[in-house]
Amino acid sequence: MTYNRRARIWSLVAEQAAIRGGRVSAADACVAAVAAVEVTGAWLLAASGAESGHLMRVTDEVSELTAELQLTLGEGPGPDAAASGGPVLASDMGEPEAGYRWPVFAPAARLAGAAAIFAFPLQVGAIRTGVMGLYRARTGPLSTFQLGDALLFADTATLLLLDAQDQTASGVAESAGSTGSGPGGQTAELTRHRAEIDQATGMLTEQLGVGIAEAFIRLRAYAYAHDRRLSDLARDIVARRLWLHPDPDPRKEEEEQA
Amino acid sequence: MDGALLSDTFVELTDTMVAGFDMIDFLHVLTNRSVQLLDVSAAGLLLADPRGELRVVAASSEAARLLELFQIQSDQGPCLDCFRSGRPVQSADLAAEAQRWPRFAPVAREAGFAAVQALPMRLREQVIGALNLFRAHPGPYDPADIRVGQALADVATISLLQERSMRHNDTLNEQLQTALNSRVIIEQAKGKLAERLGLDMDQAFNLLRDYARTSNRRLSDLAQAFVDGTDTLTSLTAGTSQPRLGGDGHPRRPAARPRL
User: Fold this and answer.
1) Are residues A161 and A199 in the same domain?
2) Nearest to A215 by CA among B192, B221, B183
3) Are A71 and A153 in the same domain?
4) Angle at alpha carbon of residue A16, lines to A11 and A21, rounded to 5°
5) Do B166 and A95 touch (CB under 8 A)?
6) Does B196 touch chain A (CB under 8 A)?
């Protein structure tokens, strides 16, 4: 059931890329989310590490204004989502709680036309790639199903942003919507076999001498290049049956097997 | 049953309004106290993710955590039945459940469990998850234990769903997703520390947890700082350039590695 749900999200994102006539990117996830989650508009902020980030995509004027206000003021659901690592679901920007929390931004957002704002951190643990924001011109919460879809769009956007950071993974992005070791399959594995994949990613920071985002990219690229399931590969690394090590040529991965 | 511990536990399980509330810690209280208070060997807890999946959020032991994961992966088992029906599910003897749970029952027995009781985490019509109580020996559960277990699950559910605002479901979902991301950060930090010091994952986790406790920091904050390199945990990692032998039975990284 869930697998079909993920596949549906991936195909919506791929469809959006086809309409645009480009390769699948995180911006397509942002645009496709608007219709699927039934919101008025969306924006995508790409930000790695501590930098404030840059606006990668806005779907209309209100979303642009809302996103820029948050960047300028440093307050709002977006910055809070980035800081907490969880979504911030503000279904009524006019309620007192929103006013206490974001004294400057909340009234400004309402004036701009955003009555409800839902911000999703694009993170994999300590890996930070940005924030996806959705807004509605009318107040009201997302249904559980809409929230689930929004989270899946955010998962998708996160992986696509990571892939865009490193060309070793460019092949991964191209296979969007596939059912094998490509991202469609990998996102499902990422929730079901979470722990081993995360542990292996942490181990690779040491083995490869790279940051956590790069380690995750290398893990996924290796799985893709060797047509292996991400979870199986991770299990081998955690069990110390397989080591990756730094290679000056990123396209020529080397590995050792015990 | 330890009456003082029981009343302390109820206090702990209603204490969700504090600043810096950590959902994972809270749910670990539920699983760990279940084991201390009831005649059970291990406890595991699944919560529903809005993505349409169940997620393992707490377990009193690694064996229980793996068994919960296995139920999700194999789409079968008492915790899933309990979550889907919203009703308690019991098996007094897993040896006799080959037909009911052909995949789950043998794996549970292999992990050392002979009986299981699953209790819903439910408020009115809304089922948010399920608590699994595993026991090493077969036989029916004491009805008093089941009542107390259900009461613990109920109190935890009400605490999680209580109206801090008009949007209690939003709050629960925000906290759940934050907790899941914290969990990922901790696993990443375990991997990094395990690789640096030549430890297995349990040893790495214990080191991180103890360090967080003694330095009075939240485990997820410490893990984040370690993974992104802003805290090198010098006192943990200094003077340990020689890998130690781990207790996990896995071979250590060989000094001279054969090239393929």
Assistant:
1) no
2) B192
3) yes
4) 120
5) yes
6) yes
Domain span including residue B186: 176-232
Domain hosting A218: range is 193-257
- Each residue's pLDDT tens digit, A217-258: 999 989 989 999 898 999 999 999 999 877 655 444 445 554
> Does A19 reside within a domain?
yes
CB contact under 8 A, B187 and A240: no
The Cα of B249 is separated from the nearest Cα of chain A by a number of Å equal to: 9
Q: What is the DSSP letter of B56?
A: E
Q: Is B183 on the interface with A (CB under 8 A)?
A: yes
Which residues share a beta bridge with A257? A242
Helix axes B168-197, B201-214, angle to 10 degrees: 110
- The total number of structural domains in chain B stands at 2
Residue from the list A2, A202, A243 with its beta carbon closest to the beta carbon of B189? A202
> What is the sign of the dihedral through the CA atoms of B176, B180, B185 and B189?
positive
Q: In CATH, what number is assigned to the domain containing residue A20?
A: 3.30.450.40
Q: Find, in chain A, the residue whose alpha carbon is nearest to that of B253.
A: A240
Nearest by CB to B259, from A49, A211, A256: name it: A256
Residues B126 and B220 in one domain: no
Residues contacting residue B154 through CB under 8 Å, at least 6 positions apart: B121, B122, B123
- Residue B28 shares a structural domain with residue B119: yes
Do A28 and A76 fall within a single domain? yes
Q: pTM surpassing 0.80?
A: yes
Cα distance between residue B131 and residue B121, in whole Å: 7
Tell me whether residues B51 and A2 touch, CB distance under 8 A. Answer: yes
Q: Is residue B250 part of a domain?
A: no
Of the residues A9, A92, A128, A198, the best mutation for testing chain B's interface (the one with the most B CB atoms within 10 Å of its CB) is A198
Q: How far is A143 from chain B (nearest CA, A)?
A: 9
- The interface residues of chain A toward chain B in range 136-195, judged by CB-CB distance below 8 A, are 141, 144-145, 147-148, 151-152, 155, 191-195
- Do A26 and A114 belong together in one domain? yes
**Residue B182's CATH number:** 1.10.10
**Per residue in A139-184, pLDDT tens?**
999 999 999 999 999 999 999 998 887 654 444 444 443 333 344 4
A94/A139 Cα distance (integer angstroms): 9
Angle in degrees, CA B110, B111, B112, rounded to 5: 90
- Show which of residues 138-167 on chain B sit within 8 Å of chain A, judged by CB atoms: 165-167
CATH code of the domain containing B44: 3.30.450.40
CATH code where residue A207 lies? 1.10.10
Is the residue at B245 inside a domain? no
